[in-house]
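quick one before i forget lol
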Amino acid sequence: MAEGGFDPCECICSHEGAMRRLISMLRDSQNTCSDSQCDLQLPGPDANQDGGYFMMMMMMGWLVLALVLFLFRPTSMRGRGDDKPSPLNQDPGPPPAPPVD
């Protein structure tokens, strides 16, 4: 709880509102379920629809896009390996002198 007794989280979700939603969910479940059977459908996509084909096509699309971007990358990025990058100045000169105590 913040100073002065003001809780900004309570403006968004209060305890009373949560209790009202819980009681509403319980009443709705009592309307659809009885002691012998429950015809409750869970929220979300319907299990009978074929959503796997769409997901597979989306994955293949991303794979093709990644492959195209990899193949058409700039030539400056093609020669890079895991080795250390070369310095820009080829003749850096003598190393600096050690500090004198």
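fyi The chain has a mean pLDDT of 75.
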